Amino acid sequence: MDKLIFPISLVTFIAFFYVVAAAFNFPYPIVAGLFGILPVALIWMVYKVLKDGEHSGKTFEKHFYEFE
Known about the structure:
By secondary structure, this protein is mostly helical. The chain is about 65% helix and about 0% strand. The protein has two helices and no strands. The chain has helices at about 5-25, 30-50. The chain is elongated. The two termini are about 20 Å apart.
């Protein structure tokens, strides 16, 4: 799980910076560049999580009514 800290943190930072840039009227090329980079970064993060993540062993059918 330690390998996933970097991709999750990086994509979260890019998304947060995109929202801040759009809200505070940053120049258009910065906002458009972040808008173009964000989907690619998000797909990369999802790929890394699915590839390197650890399965919990729980299934939907067995643990549907559990509240943790």
